[in-house]
Amino acid sequence: MYMCFLFCSRYCTSITNFLVMGGFQLLAKPAIDFLNKNQELLQDLSEVNDENTQLMEILNTLFFLPIRRLHNYAKVLLKLATCFEVASPEYQKLQDSSSCYECLALHLGRKRKEAEYTLGFWKTFPGKMTDSLRKPERRLLCESSNRALSLQHAGRFSVNWFILFNDALVHAQFSTHHVFPLATLWAEPLSEEAGGVNGLKITTPEEQFTLISSTPQEKTKWLRAISQAVDQALRGMSDLPPYGSGSSVQRQEPPISRSAKYTFYKDPRLKDATYDGRWLSGKPHGRGVLKWPDGKMYSGMFRNGLEDGYGEYRIPNKAMNKEDHYVGHWKEGKMCGQGVYSYASGEVFEGCFQDNMRHGHGLLRSGKLTSSSPSMFIGQWVMDKKAGYGVFDDITRGEKYMGMWQDDVCQGNGVVVTQFGLYYEGNFHLNKMMGNGVLLSEDDTIYEGEFSDDWTLSGKDNSGLIEQVGKCSLLPYFLKVCEALVLFLL
Fold first, then answer.
1. Per-residue confidence band for 243, with pLDDT thresholds at 50, 70 and 90
2. Does domain 258-366 fall into CATH 3.90.1580?
3. CATH 2.30.29.30 occupies which residues in the chain?
4. pLDDT tens per residue across span 451-468
5. I need a labelling partner for 360 at 20 to 30 A (CA). Which of 202, 222, 259, 316 fits?
């Protein structure tokens, strides 16, 4: 029986969709020559007795005939039930089946009336808007052409027409209109304290406006209609009628928190982006996925419409045919807190972020050991630049720097160790050794004095300042200390 009901319901959906799109009117034109020759047969099949009935109406009646006969099936089952004892299980089953058929017949009858009501509306609606708004599955619920609903603070000569469908609220103005999907629409009555006795506050992801009804009764009517339509849109359309008392009970109002999909059209940051996830009162709130047309994608937590919490962000790099990839924490729409950012260039940063910038302690790896320029920095960052104490290991040049940084360059006191056994400790300026310093060479000689440009010695004759350290070399010991420190920091 379930399959029979499902077939009847889907058949009715197809026919009502065909009716809404004006299908019978279009079908009558090409069929008129053939069917007029068999007018009598056609009337017999459709059970139409009036000879003056138009062909379009006959076709309409003929296609809906299987649905009309559901009442007959219910009556037949009731007659069969009288053949059994009232207390018998057969009697009860036949009674239940008859009730189901009757319920289905009423349900499909309402669907037909909704389709005919919608078709009548489209016949009076402006042509251009009809082409863009008319859809097979869209049904009219109510509209404000009788001035029962108006827009608050609208201009004196403005025209505002509100049309409630089963999937959207449409705001029409002269030759323009905007469609607000019901899945992402929230309606609530304005309190008397707010000065809106007959007002309804409408909230959507990108707009908020107030509707004023002509009477308190109209306000209640529109609020109920919008709330029920939103609730039904969130539940999804069902071909089958609701059986049983429990399943037919509707909620008084749709949930404030819900899951829905929406494409932004107005917000500059989110224009043409599609969000699919949890919402709260018109804003993304909870877990969701946000996709931009250019390929950018964020997947994670939202709060009050912004990325907030733990999330993953991907940004395509068309020039390199790769993508930047961030996994970590967000706050108010920006990367903030601990995270890992993998750049399309191959660099990887692990550490702290603030306002979408590297800020705080972090580790930056550039390239791999097998690449042309592998290096590593671990230390402090300020506004996306190295600042404060940090350790930089240039594997290509075989140099390690441990010391102070400012604006992405070595600046202040620091230590450098090279693969050639040179050790320098002293002052740096713009990535170069400048000022007082101590240089320890591979043969354990020490130079103390002024440096002008990296390894260039300056000043007076320095021969008297060179000392032989002796058998105990400090360089191997220092190298081991540096390696141990770097490994510890990693």
1. low
2. no
3. 137-235
4. 877 666 664 434 434 443
5. 316
